[in-house]
Design goal:
about 30% helix, alpha/beta, about 475 residues, single chain
Length: about 475
């Protein structure tokens, strides 16, 4: 057990009245859980109390993030939130995972720090050759929205809160620019965390009719904001599921309501972006198209004239929604954490193969992508081993991806052969991110979308400042151009 009282010289003071007296060394403060009447510690830390020494607390076998009394384990397992629950109808095992090719799974690969100068040089040459013709500078589309102005200007905000609000404002501004902000549609927020992006979209829509929000998050999240919405015209539904297994077609509101979907996300980490794209344009859109005569791509190809397309786009009803609105009306996702991508789930495999690249190169490029944002950061004074790596695919608002408090301590950032300067590493990291994102762009193009990449906030606000947007090719909403 850690010390139950702060070390000498600590400015933590004393626990608040009625709160646990256990001092959490890692957080440099007392536990904030409520202690039972007459007790010094909360249930989680009661093992530190002398009167509780007779009872032993052990790690929960379902979730080692919390503990339980050993003599109450059987009772706890029946109600633990981490216990396996019946799968909902929209759970379909690995439906968005992509095909698994055993022949492409690389053998145990050595860390980048163990590569020779020649091996690392060959990788970098492959990267530069594959990136030829790609513009390394994206267009800036830093936008805002009046719905967030009061919140951004609130003097009570700290730096972190202001940064997140600026990002949400720009994403919302881009959604509006793409004409995706309107009535009679369903916004699906992937990696929703607390649900703040959907919260602001709902506020911006005001009293728009028949708007539904589906918030997808793998883990249980505290301080959710979607529960605050009780308006008649908008409905919030939270799904606790890994995107890898999510079948949107089996969600009642989408199966019965026939609402066009707008996929959104703020800092959707690595592999979760690929899973979300496949969930939208393969699992959902493809299934929808199968029910409607011919596929989207074939319909576009068979359109005889541009005038026919314009006529289709302008067809509408009293709510100004086209009668033949595509199943996926648009995609607006802020990208993040390319070092957490996975070859099996990556949607741009075809693009990589066309460049003569495969699973091995992808593995090293994804690791080197961290050089662009995390490799040169100042590590925390107390602990240089903090990392953003996690088994969870999806965004967690409790973790910052871009505020400088975390540093990737993967061996790809340290102890490299002495052939690269800091600036060169940074440029290589950006090239890796660009190449991975370009594979996603080509994937969306092949699926009948018009995608684009742009910088949506200043790097001082977030180092992860790239926004991926996409509209169906025959949509009436024009894609943003430089």
């Amino acid at each position: 057990m850690m010390a139950a009282s702060p070390p000498r010289g600590c400015a933590a003071g004393f626990p608040a009245e009625g709160r646990c007296g256990y001092y959490v060394e890692k957080k440099r403060r007392f536990c904030r859980m409520v202690a039972a009447a007459g007790k010094r510690f909360c249930g989680e830390h009661s093992g530190a109390a002398e009167e509780e020494n007779a009872r032993k607390r052990i790690l929960c076998p379902l979730d080692p993030k919390h503990t339980v009394y050993e003599d109450q384990l059987a009772k706890h397992l029946k109600k633990c939130n981490a216990r396996e629950k019946p799968k909902p109808d929209f759970f379909v095992q690995d439906i968005n995972a992509g095909l698994k090719d055993e022949t492409e799974i690389p053998e145990q690969l050595v860390p980048i720090s163990s590569l020779s100068e020649e091996q690392l040089g060959n990788l970098i040459n492959k990267l530069r050759k594959a990136s030829e013709g790609l513009s390394s500078t994206l267009n800036d589309h830093i936008m805002s929205h009046p719905a967030l102005q009061d919140a951004i200007n609130d003097p009570r905000n700290g730096d972190s809160a202001t940064k997140h609000l600026k990002q949400q404002a720009s994403i919302l501004g881009n959604i509006e620019k793409l004409k995706l902000l309107g009535p009679r549609r369903c916004f699906v927020e992937f990696g929703a965390g607390k649900g703040k992006l959907s919260h602001w979209v709902d506020i911006a829509l005001k009293d728009a009719e028949k708007v539904h929000f589906i918030l997808v998050e793998k883990v249980t999240t505290r301080f959710k904001v979607d529960g605050k919405h009780r308006k008649k015209n908008s409905m919030f539904e939270r799904l606790q599921i890994d995107i890898q297994h999510l079948c949107l077609n089996k969600i009642p509101v989408l199966r019965e309501g026939k609402l066009p979907v707008v996929g959104i996300g703020k800092h959707l980490c690595g592999v979760a972006t690929d899973l979300a794209l496949r969930c939208l344009v393969e699992t959902y859109a493809a299934c929808y198209e199968e029910k409607n005569e011919e596929p989207l791509a074939k319909r576009i190809k068979n359109d005889k004239t541009e005038n026919d397309m314009n006529t289709l786009a302008k067809e509408g009803n009293e709510n100004n929604v086209p009668k033949k609105w595509p199943p996926v009306a648009g995609i607006v996702i802020a990208l993040c954490c390319h070092h957490r991508c996975d070859w099996r789930h990556y949607v741009g495999k075809e693009y990589f193969r066309a460049l003569g690249l495969g699973a091995v190169e992808f593995h090293y490029f994804q690791r080197m992508s961290s050089w662009a944002t995390c490799g040169m950061r100042k590590a925390p004074l107390e602990d240089t081993n903090i990392t953003t790596k996690s088994k969870d695919h999806q965004n967690d608002d409790s973790k910052e991806h871009d505020d400088g408090e975390y540093r990737i301590t993967d061996d790809s950032t340290d102890n490299l052969p002495g052939i690269l300067t800091v600036e060169e590493k940074k440029k290589i990291g950006h090239l890796c991110k660009l190449l991975i994102d370009q594979g996603r762009v080509q994937y969306l193009e092949q699926k009948g979308f018009s995608p684009a990449l742009q910088n949506y906030v200043d790097p001082l606000v977030s180092l992860e400042n790239v926004l991926l947007t996409a509209l169906p090719i025959h949509s009436s909403s024009p894609q943003i151009t430089g």
